Amino acid sequence: MRDEAGFRAFVETNGATLLHAARLLTGDHHRGEDLVQTALTKVYLKWGRIDAPLPYARKALVNAHIDQSRRRWWGERPTETLPEPADDHARSEEAASESRDELRRILAGLAPKERAVIVLRYYCDLSEQETAATLGLPVGTVKSTCSRALARLRVEVTSGAAS
Amino acid sequence: MSPTEHDLRAALRDGEGDGPDPFVVTAAGRRAAARRRSQLVNTAAAVVLIGGLGTAGTLLLPGSDNEHASGSKDFGAAAKAPNALHTQNAAGGASGGGANTDSSRGAAGGTPVVPPDVAAPANSCPATAPAIPAPARGTGSSGPLFRQTPAELVVCTYAGAPSSAGPAELVLTGADAGAVLSSLDAAAPEPPTGMCPHYRLAGERTVEIIGRSAAGTPVGSVIATLDRPACATVVTNGTVVRYGWAPPAQLLEKVGPIGGRSHGPVAQTTSPSR
């Protein structure tokens, strides 16, 4: 019998962070919700057998995101404009901060793995070692991927500002 | 403009909202768990079903042969004369075509031999001599040759050389059957220890003795060779073995001599037994 109360407490505590990370990873409100649902379902199925649920949930989230981005029907194509937000809430958020939107638009143009590294490092505040463990990559690869992604962000932001 | 790490963190954190509803997530998890359980149960059921079908198929295959055997029994019984003792050509008569047992198929097709305890014995003579190998020396059981004491015996005699005539079938009851059973009982469960001229005659005959209960159901069968010295004659049903069987005179008289063939010894197939 699973400890459902414990699982619910975990979702209440960490659900918002995971959901926002999922939105950042997917670049889409609804797909972010789907992604976090998938990841939390995996956590639910393993609940009671995992020692560290939050790292497990992060790993499930990132793996599900990378898996989905590999599928043809989920194939992502970078676009000049951020995809239309799905609801009024997201739309109003978008209008609230131009600079934030700019960064997130550029983030959506990164490769899935680069985006995952940025989200884990700068949103989830994981160390390089923790990020490497979550992604199943060597620390050196995380460092180089992060560096490359940041460089792209700088270039995109700079070129956006210039234009 | 180049974003600082602080800008990046702020941009990423901006817009954080509420988390998912824990109850919705839990309900979705429950559904996923139920789906997974259902898949596991279906897989297990499929494995059990396939295993069951395989087992049933394995068990039914010999069962179908039993049906053939009993069918031929009825057919043979209908064609038999009511006399207690008679001979007939099984190949041309009632039982020749129908009584095709596993062992006869094994002899004809070179397939592995099925011991008579596994496959129910035929109730009348198979078209060809069943190939029932005797257990290796010292490994045979000394138990009874038949599952119960037969009320009558069907003696199927096969010529050594392939013959289109098929086996000669002889049904023994009463004293004749008793004499054969006594001779089988008198045969030793242990192999002979003395010297024995282990020769075989050209065209020596194989004999299968099928035991039948008073109701006509088969109670086992044994196989032996005729025309050898008693010390070189082995009787077996595939698991139980008797050595030094001397067929009674009544039987040899009914079966007749090895007529029409040379009585000279032929090349030995094995070294003389001791």
Short synopsis of the structure:
The complex is a heterodimer of chains A (163) and B (274). With 163 residues, chain A is an all-alpha fold.
What would your notes on this structure say?
The complex is a heterodimer of chains A (163) and B (274). Chain A has helices spanning 4-26, 29-46, 53-70, 88-96, 98-108, 112-123, 128-135, 139-162. Chain A is mostly helical and 163 residues long. Chain A has one domain: Up-down Bundle (Butyryl-CoA Dehydrogenase, subunit A, domain 3). The radius of gyration of chain A is 16 Å and the shape is globular. The model of chain A has no long low-confidence stretch (mean pLDDT 82). Chain B has one domain. Chain B is built from 6 helices and 7 strands. In chain B, strands 1-3-2-4-5 form a 5-stranded antiparallel beta sheet. In chain B, a hairpin with a 4-residue loop joins strand 6 (234-236) and strand 7 (241-243). Chain B is rod-shaped, with a radius of gyration of 33 Å. Mean pLDDT of chain B is 71; it is low at 64-120 and 260-269. Chains A and B meet through helix 1, helix 2, helix 5, helix 6 and helix 8 of A and helix 1 and helix 2 of B.
